[in-house]
Design goal:
alpha/beta, Rossmann fold, about 50% helix, binds zinc ion
C-alpha cells in the first residue's frame, strides 16, 4: 500500500520508471518522520518485483525480511539487505557505544566499493540520512556519483537537502514528500489510532498539531504525552478567549518549556490559517486568530522562540512563561505590542 501522503512523490518516481529515466542517484527529502524510508522501500519493491509488488515472490520476501533501521549492538560499515544486491549505509555505533551523529568516510568508501562490483541484477545502495555524512564522506560519495555505472541506483534520504553539497544535489533527481492535511491522510490517521483513544481525538486536529506529519501524530498518542499536551493547548486557548479571567498557571508548573512549545505550535498554526484565510479544526484557535493581528502574532512568536532558546541557560522559566502568557492572554485586543522583559533582561 502507498501511504496517502506519498502518492504524489510515488507518482513522480513511477513516472521516471515508465519513461526509463531512472537516475543513477535519487534523493528523497522531507521532514523527520514523514516516511522517506517507507517511500524508498516501496519504490525498491516496485523496481524488483515483476508482479506488481505481490508480496509473495522471492524479491518481495527478501525485502520484507530487511530491517536496516534496527540499532545493532556492534559497529558495521554497511548493512546488507536480504536481497543480495542491496546495501544500506547509516550512522552506526561509536566505540563509546553511543550512536554516532555522522556517517563517516570509511563507511562511504565501503559502500561505494561494494556498489562498484559488477552484478547482473540491479544494484541498490541506500544512504540514510545523507545530510548526516561528514565532509569527507560526502566528497567520497561525489567521486562515485561522478562516474555513473549502469544498473546501479543510489538512493539518498535526507531531512534537509540544503545541508548537502550543491555538487551532490546536482547529480541527483530529487523527490520531496510534503506534510499533509488532506482527508485521506486524516482517515489513515484515524485508522491508526487505538480503538479506545479514537473517540477522544479529532484526527484532523491531531494531524494539525503534528504539523501534517501522520507518523508523528501516531507517535504523540503513545504514552500520555498527548493528553497532557491537549490539556495545555485547551487551557492556552481558554486564556486567549477570556482575557478578563485571572490566569491560572499551576498546570504548567514544571512544564514551562513544553508549554512554550505548545503555544509556539498553536501560534504557528494560527498564522498559517490566517495567511491562507481558512479555518482549522480548533474552533477557539480560529476565533483567536480572527481577532488578533498578524503583526502581533508574529511578534509573540518571535518572543516565544527566543524564550525557548533561553531554556538551555539558567533563567527563571516560570517567570519567562508568565510574561509570555500575559501577552498571549491579551492577544485578541492588543493595541500596542509590549516589550516582554525577563528577570535577567533575557528577552
Ligand atoms: Zn513480488
Amino acid at each position: 500500500m502507498i501511504l496517502p501522503w506519498h502518492q504524489n512523490a510515488f507518482a513522480k518516481l513511477t513516472q521516471m520508471l515508465e519513461q526509463s529515466h531512472l537516475p543513477q542517484a535519487l534523493l528523497i527529502t522531507g521532514t523527520e518522520k514523514i516516511g522517506k524510508f517507507e517511500l524508498a522501500e516501496r519504490f525498491i519493491q516496485t523496481l524488483l518485483c515483476k508482479n506488481d509488488s505481490c508480496g509473495d515472490c522471492r524479491h518481495c520476501r527478501q525485502l520484507a525480511k530487511d530491517n536496516p533501521r534496527e540499532v545493532l549492538d556492534q559497529n558495521v560499515l554497511v548493512r546488507r539487505s536480504h536481497y543480495p544486491n542491496m546495501i544500506f549505509c547509516r550512522t552506526e555505533l561509536r566505540e563509546s557505544g553511543k550512536e554516532s551523529k555522522e556517517i563517516r568516510v570509511d563507511q562511504i568508501r565501503a559502500f561505494c566499493d561494494i556498489l562498484n562490483k559488477t552484478a547482473d541484477e540491479l544494484q541498490i545502495g541506500v544512504i540514510f540520512y545523507a545530510d548526516q555524512m561528514n565532509v569527507s564522506a560526502a566528497n567520497s560519495l561525489l567521486k562515485t556519483l561522478e562516474e555513473p555505472r549502469e544498473n546501479t541506483l543510489i538512493i539518498l534520504l535526507a531531512h534537509n537537502a540544503s545541508a548537502l553539497p550543491a555538487t551532490i544535489l546536482s547529480r541527483c533527481q530529487s523527490v520531496h514528500i510534503r506534510p499533509t492535511f488532506d482527508s485521506e491522510s486524516v482517515e489513515w490517521l484515524s485508522n491508526h489510532i487505538d480503538r479506545e483513544k479514537r473517540s477522544d481525538f479529532d484526527s484532523a486536529q491531531l494531524l494539525e498539531s503534528a504539523h501534517g506529519i501522520p507518523f508523528r501524530a501516531v507517535e504523540k498518542l503513545q504514552g500520555d504525552y498527548f493528553l497532557q499536551f491537549q490539556g495545555w493547548q485547551n487551557h492556552l486557548l481558554e486564556m486567549a478567549m477570556n482575557p478578563a479571567k485571572t490566569i491560572e498557571t499551576e498546570m504548567f508548573e514544571g512544564h514551562e518549556l513544553e508549554t512554550l512549545v505548545c503555544l509556539q505550535q498553536l501560534i504557528t498554526e494560527g498564522i498559517r490559517l490566517k495567511l491562507l484565510k481558512t479555518q482549522g479544526a480548533l474552533l477557539e484557535l480560529n476565533k483567536v486568530v480572527n481577532k488578533a493581528s498578524s503583526d502581533n502574532l508574529f511578534r509573540l512568536l518571535d518572543d516565544i522562540s527566543r524564550a525557548i532558546s533561553l531554556a538551555q541557560s539558567p533563567v527563571n522559566m516560570a517567570l519567562l512563561l508568565d510574561n509570555v502568557l500575559i501577552v498571549w492572554s491579551h492577544i485578541t485586543h492588543l493595541k500596542q505590542y509590549p516589550a516582554i522583559t525577563s528577570p535577567q533582561e533575557a528577552l
